[in-house]
Hints:
Layout: H1 9-15, H2 19-25, H3 38-45, H4 49-61, H5 75-108, H6 114-152, H7 163-187, H8 199-242
Helix pairs in contact: 1-8, 5-6, 5-8, 6-7, 6-8, 7-8
Amino acid sequence: MPSSQYITIGEFVSHDFRTASIFSKYGIDFFCGGQRTIEEVCDKKSINHGQLLEELTEIILSTNTNTIDFNSWPLDLLIDYILKKHHRYVGAKVPAILSALDKLCQTHSGEHPELLEIKSLFEGCATDLLGHLKKEEQQLFPIIAKLEKATQLDATAPAPVGIDNSIATLRHEHDLEGARFRKIKILTHNYAPPADSCNTYRITYAMLRDFEQDLQEHIHIENNILFPRVIKLEQKLLKQQAN
């Protein structure tokens, strides 16, 4: 890997996803904020640069690893993984979490009014995220397929253009979901239900925690692996066609 002075947080996590746990420990956003360098984020958050690098190095050098090298995957396989693991997950979990939050608010919002805000935040997430996924499935992913086809044809087919704007929009939408879940995390005290909470309370918070963890990996794969590779592929193709 390059010197930590120049490598971004997203590149660290792309190289070894286990490092995500270290960044999370220090409250560092590796999915939406993955374009920052270690030095930048340490200076901003007053984190000991050497301590963080030591912990990152330790986990990277450890031999117990089952991490997936997404960087080596063909784009069509990476997209298939995103669809089957993350898009399906969102489609399955959103209705269940909405139902659980509705029941929780009906029963406990009197003594815990923050539940109403949590429910409102997740409802906004559900609406926007489902629309976001449809945009990827119907617009971005087909464009990527065309780029790959053009590459396979030795650049004889015209390359789709304007993908940078589409990706910029999707990145912005990722940022919005990251911000929503930061608020949810604060309101739920890091998904820790009250000591006297019922089973529904505990299950609902656990579902929200799991949903955020899946969303972080989902956004990381797209922001830090898929999008940069697609932009690079388009630029290479356009350059070949110009020659």
